[in-house]
Amino acid sequence: MMRKFVMALAAGAALVFGAGLAEAHGPSRQKVIQEVTLNATPDEVWAVIGKFDDLSWYPRAKSVEIEPGAEVKPGEQRTVTWDNGEQTTEQLTKWNPEGHTYSYRTITDNIKALAVTNYSGIIAVKDEGGKAKVEWTGAFYRGFPNNDPPPELNDEAAIATVTAAHQMGLDALVEKFGKAN
Q1: Which of 38, 36, 43, 58 is nearest to 178 (CA)?
Q2: How far apart are CA 32 and CA 162, in angstroms?
Q3: Of 56, 87, 161, 177, which sits with the fewest C-beta atoms within 10 Å of its C-beta?
Q4: Quick one: signal sequence residues (predicted)?
Q5: Strand 77-82 relative to strand 131-142, pairing
Q6: How far apart are CA 123 and CA 80, in angstroms?
Q7: Sign of CA dihedral 166, 170, 171, 172
Q8: How far apart, in whole angstroms, are the C-alpha atoms of residue 51 and residue 125?
């Protein structure tokens, strides 16, 4: 009888603690990849978007602050002020100007600027028959890290937010250079 009681108690504890562990699983990392081929050479496009301290090509960026005289290299940080007055601080993680690519990550999340957390991005310009193919990859978590997020901070909203943000930049490049046929 005592053995059955102990086994039942152990089984009950496993159910309770097991259920708690299942619910404790947080959000999954999301990823968005968008691209456009422009009517310009990779060098021409890189000259515009390949500057970590210059986001003048991106419509939402109002200003970029970087340490004066700083050398562009991994570890360098920029503070971006967005069109709504909000700011984020981003860090350059990989820098390859010869390969026309750089990676960066947000080190200060601000869901009022971009409704996601732990965002990291890669911007790459590739040669496609003499035309510039721009590929922008973003990886991130939703804006609400716990279970049961509000609709504006759930996974679907995060994907839509990053997709729209990237598309705005790609559309600005199309406006500047034209889309390749």
Answers
A1: 38
A2: 7
A3: 56
A4: 1-24
A5: unpaired
A6: 17
A7: positive
A8: 13
> How large a percentage of the chain has pLDDT more than 70?
86
Residue (of 60, 58, 38) closest to 125 by Cα position: 38
First vs last C-alpha separation in the chain: 80
The answer to whether the beta carbons of residues 160 and 140 sit under 8 Å apart is no
Q: Kindly report, residue by residue over 139-155, the tens digit of the pLDDT.
A: 999 999 999 999 999 99
Residue 9 has pLDDT above 90, yes or no: no
Q: Which CATH entry fits the domain spanning 30-50+94-177: 3.30.565.10, 3.40.190.10, 3.30.1780.10, 3.30.530.20? A: 3.30.530.20
